[in-house]
Structure formats: C-alpha cells, structure tokens
Amino acid sequence: MRRLTRRRFLASSGATLAAASAAAVVGCRDKKSSTAPAAGRAKPGTAVSTRGGVLRTYSLDAMIQDSLDPHLTQMGPIANLHAGVFSRLYRYTAGPGGDIVPDLALAMPEQPDNLTYVITLRDGAAFHDTPQVRAAYPGLAGRALTADDVKFSIERQSSRNSPQARHFYRQGDWTPIDRIDVSDARTLTIKLKQPVAPFLGFLAGRHAFVIAKETVDALDQANSPGAMVGTGPFLLDSLEPQVAMRLRRNPLWFARDDNPGGIGTGRPFLDGYDAFFDPQEDVFQRVAFERRAVDTTGFSDPAVLDTERKTNLADIVLEETDAGAILASRLLLDRAPFKDDRVRRAFHLATDRGAIMNLLYPAVDGGRASAKLSGPVAPAMQQWAIADADLRKRPGYRSDDAGRAADIQEAKQLWAAALGDGPVGDVRVLFAGIPKAFVDRAMPAFQRQLLDALGLNIVPIVDPSGYALIASSLGRNIDGAAEGVTLCTFALEDGGDDVDDWLYPHFRSGQPMNTYRLQDAQLDAMLDKQRAEFDTDARRKLGLDIQDYLVRKVNARLEYLAPVRRRLTWGYVRNSSLPAWHGATERLADVWLDTTHPSWRPRSA
Q: Which end of the chain is more exposed for a tag (fewer CB within 10 A), N or C?
C-alpha cells in the first residue's frame, strides 16, 4: 500500500486530499463515545431542501475482517456495507432501545399463536440493477425479491450440510424454526419448534440480511464485492480493502417514498457515500475536516476532537452515543492454563480495567467520560446491562486502593493454588492492531499488570490487519480440531440490540461464536430459560443473573470497557445520527447536504 508523508498530506487540498488520505494506511479506527446512551427513538428529521452530493467520511468501513458474506462475518465494520446494500425483514429504528418496524415486510407479522409468524412482503422490492450486476448475474438484475429469497437466507444459516455450517455465526437464531412455508411470492409462514421471546428481534438483527441465492457459490459463500447485490438504499460502487468503500444511490429503492417524519420523498437524498479508511492520524483528519475534504470524522485522541469542536461551535456538530460494543479478551478453555477456572478468575482480578480505560479513552471537557466499564452486555444496552454502580463494586472492577489490593491478593492466591510454585509459562495474547492505541497504550499496560500481579509473562502478537488474523484464529478454535489454537485475544467485540444477542451465541454450548469451547450445563439452562420468557421484567432479571454468573464464576471472556463514540460533523450535513455500532448505514437514506448552510461554501468539490 502506498504511504503518504505528512508534508505531502498537509500540502494537499480539496478532493486530492480526501483521496490521498484514504490511500494512506497508518492503522485506523472507528471513534467511540458519549455521555448519554443511544436514544430510544430517532428524532424527527429536517425536511430536505437540496439534493445530491456525496457524503465523505473517515471510518473503518473498508476493513474486511473475515468474510464479505453477510451471513458469514462474525462482526465488525463491514456490516456498514451490508446495511447500505442489503435489507432485512424488520429493522430497529434507533439501535439500543429502538422500536422494531417493517423494512422488507409490509407490516408486523401476524401471530395466530406464539409459534407462528405470518409475514407479507411489501411490493416493489427488487434487487439492484446495474451493468455490473447484469454482466455477473443477468437473471438477478432488477428481479423482484420474493418470499423464497427470505426462506433461502434463513435456511442456509441453519443447514448442517453446508460446507460453512460451523461459520454461520447466528445459526442459533434460526435453529428454533421448525419449517418455513411459502404461500406465494409475497407471503411466508415461519413455524417455530418452541416459543422464542426474542424471535422478532432475530428478524431485525444487525446481520439478518436477505440475500439472493444466485450470488452464492458452490462453497456456499457470497464472498466477493460482485456478490454484494441486495435491495437496499445504496449500490456498491467500489471496495478497496483498507483504502475506501464507495456506495451510490439506488434510484429504485423500495422505500424511497416512505417519507419518515415528513422530510421528503425520493430517498436516498444523497448521490452517494464515500468512506475513506481511517488513517488514525489526528493531524491528517483535522486538516481534512477543516478543509471539508471529509464531512464527518472521529479522532484517535478524544482531547483533539474536543479541541477541534470548539474551533467553530456555530458550524460543527458533535455527535455521540455509548458504543454498542465492548473491549474484551476471549480465553480458550480446553487446555492449560485457562482450563482451570481459578486461573481465569486470577486473570480477571489482576487486570486493572480502570487504568486501561484511562489510557485508551481519557476523559474530556471537565471530566466527561470517553468510556465506561462493561460487563458481558455493553452499558449502551441500558435495559439489559449491569448497572455501573453495581459493576464498580464487583471484584475485578473496583478502582479504590482497598478494593484493588483485595483483588490482587485474591488473584495471587488463586494463581498459586492452581499452578503451585512451579515456573509459569508464557501466555500468548493476540492483540487487535486497530485502533493502534491498543498496541501503543493498552498492550504495555496489560503486560505490566499481569507481570506485577501474577509474575506472568504476556507475549503479545499484534494483528496488523486489525482483526482478520483474530477472526481466522477464533474460527480455528471452533473448527472441530482436538484443541483450539488461540489462547487469548484483546479486541473490540460486537453485540446486538437484545440481551440474547450478547449472551446466547457467545456462551451457549455448541454455538459458533462460543470460541472458548465453553460447556456449562447450568449456564445453558439459564440461557435457554431467558429465550422462553416473554415477560420483559422477568427476562431482564434472567439476563442479569446470567451476567452475574459469567462474571462471578465462568470468566471465559473478560470484559473491560465500552467506548463512548464521538464524531464531528459539519452543520450542512442534515439528519445525521451516530449509530451505537456498525450496521445502520440504511439510515443514511435520510441524510442530505444543505448547500445553503454557511459552512458549505468552503467545501471541496
């Protein structure tokens, strides 16, 4: 990859600056933050008065972590591509706490009983029609989406015969289905084996995209840019990994005239969306933002973002929300040392979460938090997460001197009881290389904490791609070999919108995201019980009980913190909102560029 010198970058201007910045690969990162959790409902939008233009941003959207296939990717920024290109049956209006509303479906499902969901598709939904699609898939271009497409998209993920069966990471959402009956091109009936309380949430999940069978190859993969053919508001124009992702307006989008909040018809209002790979170099991003070469961006250092915001308070908007993701370590439980729960508990207690949080995400502007401590469910999920006041009292999360001293003492005792006085071997930890602050700041602190507390030597391995090596290694943990291969990771983890998204796929025995090889009959029973509980308050209590069990006893995944996402946006970008995490690009259909705004005139062409 071509690298860009600081002098050449600062000498650049306008569109040249944006393109060159995108080509510069200096790490990367998606900015997090917020003092307040994501809003439960989207605010009414501003009515559109000018149309067109391409929204330009720095992000991680061009980072491919494992697969382009929307059903085979574990998590991550590529969901932003999928959310723009594909559609779901239903969708959440505003992330955590948002309502579920129809997308491809005409209305909410009819439910004659708690096992049956009758879904009618809306008219007019068709797959993208471009010269590229016509050349690659002549029978698919412009074809109407049907109930058979929905059935295929669900059933492929629960098939035990697929060569990808172990890597459909959300197959647990679909295995409760007994059968899917298609009545006609627009009607299907889903029959469950047993009642599942969050099933409607599965149909609206971050990765519940409907794809076309034509794009899937003989190995049951849709893993190429050319296979990104959906029914969503945008078309994939180009994808250059670690450089840029470009989406363009789908003029035949089925929801173009839905007119949410009276903002106008003919959505998307933008001509396109260019996501340049985040160079993770604040001086680059600051110059690019000030010259309007990008319309919105985050920054690696929260203090830089805060300073930049104050340079032009009248024209710059600060967007922020608690992140729907957590920083965590996955442990491998099928062999030493983490097979012993005392070792895992010692690891948990010896880690100083508060110190890592302050290093990675220092507070800004008079003490406003840039991250929050997190249990198994991110604090953005207020309804489901362990409350901050409760978390801070727990061993492993305490930051007061007495609490930390007690935690370290117990960690030493557990470690000695498990391993005796013999020499302690090294533990290899696979660190995400993006954001680069993980390597620059967190990695040395993490090594020092475990060495000081337990005498343990952490041997770091850095994933220079960000997460691709980690994804591949975790995949090998679940591939059926006699032993897993990745002892410990250190990376951001995705979640979802329901408590089940955060817990069941990750910790239930046999689930594809259970890379720890965890098997716990008591935990399995608790996870099954929350799926069967339809009373919200009772289900919330079950979710908290599960998290308590995980933190107090299991410690297969050590959760540290959840960032607060922040980004700056020029005031001419209307109806913009910062999602809690990746997978909400369809909301860009409501965004428009106000060419009458005072800050528009200096914008680069």
A: C
How many beta carbons lie within 10 A of that of residue 162, not counting itself? 18
Q: Which of 129, 108, 131 is nearest to 119 (CA)?
A: 108
Confidence of residue 94 (pLDDT cuts 50, 70, 90): confident
Nearest to 315 by CA among 297, 298, 293, 290: 290
Report whether pLDDT(326) > 50: yes
3-state secondary structure 163-182: CCHHHCCCHHHHCCEEEEEE
Average pLDDT, the chain: 90
CA-based radius of gyration for the chain: 24
- The two tokens of residue 604 are 């680069």
Q: What is the mean pLDDT of residues 555-581?
A: 96
Q: 200: closest CA among 80, 79, 119, 125?
A: 119
pLDDT at 276: 97
Secondary structure (H, E, C), 93-142? CCCCCCCEEECCECCCCECCCCCEEEEEECCCCECCCCHHHHHHCCCCCC
Tokens of 250: 């789908």
Terminal CA-to-CA distance of the chain, rounded, Å? 26
User: What average pLDDT does the segment 7-30 reach?
Assistant: 34
Tell me the pLDDT tens digit for each residue of 67-87: 999 999 987 899 999 999 999
- Determine the Cα–Cα distance for residues 514 and 505; give it in Å rounded to an integer: 7
| pLDDT value of residue 495 | 87
Domains and CATH numbers, the chain: 31-277+571-593 (3.40.190.10), 325-563 (3.10.105.10)
Residues in CB range of 482: below 8 A, 6 or more apart: none
